[in-house]
Amino acid sequence: MFNRVVACSLLILLAVPQLLPGADPHGTEVSKWAADRMEQAASNQPLRKQLSQLVIPRLEVEDIALADLLKLLRLEARKADPEGKGFNLFVKCRAESLKATVSLDLTNVPVSEILHMVQLTSGVQFVYERYAVVVMDKPPPTE
After folding, report:
1. For the purposes of burial, counting CB atoms within 10 Å of the CB of 120, is it exposed (0-12), middle (13-18) or buried (19 or more)?
2. Closest CA to 94 of 130, 140, 40
3. Cα separation, 51 vs 83, whole angstroms
4. Collapsing DSSP states into helix, strand and coil, what is residue 94?
5. Dihedral sign from CA coordinates of 106, 111, 115, 120
6. Using one digit for the tens of pLDDT, what is the confidence trace for 66-99?
C-alpha cells in the first residue's frame, strides 16, 4: 500500500513538476529525482517481500538491548529461511541508540512486522535498501 502511494505521488510530480518548491519550469530535475525515487522503491521490493515471508515462530525477550535484539533477530531469520540466508543488516546509527532496551513477546510474526514494531517503540528506523536493511536514527521531530 505504502509503495503505491509513493509511486502515485511521484507520478504526480512527474506530471506536474511545478508542485515541488524550487522546481525548474521544465521539470527536468524533478523528473530525474522522481524517477530515481521510483527506481529505488522498486529495487527494495524483493528484500521487503522476503522479510514479510520469513516468519519467526516465537520471540520472547525482556529489556534486551537493541543491538542484541538485532543479532537475535538475524539468527532467528536465518533459521526461518529455507535457504538459511536470513537478511543483511547495515547499522548506521549512534551507539547510544543500540543501547536502548526493547521487550517483545511474539508468536508467528514476519520479520518485517517485528522490525516495524521495534521502529515504533525505539529511536531507530529501518530503511529497506536493495540488499540490506539499514538501521538509522530517527530524525528529530519537526515543529
Report:
1. exposed
2. 140
3. 13
4. coil
5. negative
6. 999 999 999 999 999 999 999 999 999 999 999 9
Work out whether strand 133-137 and strand 124-128 pair parallel, antiparallel, or are unpaired: antiparallel
Amino acid at 31: S
C-alpha grid cell for residue 3?
509503495
Residues paired with residue 60 on neighbouring β-strands, in sequence order: 105
| Three-state SS at 48 | helix
pTM: 0.69
**pLDDT at residue 46, as a whole number:** 87
Is residue 80 helix, strand or coil?
helix
CA angle 79, 119, 115 (to 5 degrees): 15
* Helix count and strand count (H, E) for the chain: 6, 5
Q: Could you tell me which residues are beta bridge partners of residue 136?
A: 92, 125
94 CA to centre of own chain: 17
Task: List CB contacts of 28: < 8 A, sequence separation 6 or more.
Answer: none
What grid cell was written down for 17? 513538476
Where the chain has pLDDT below 70, the residues are 1-44
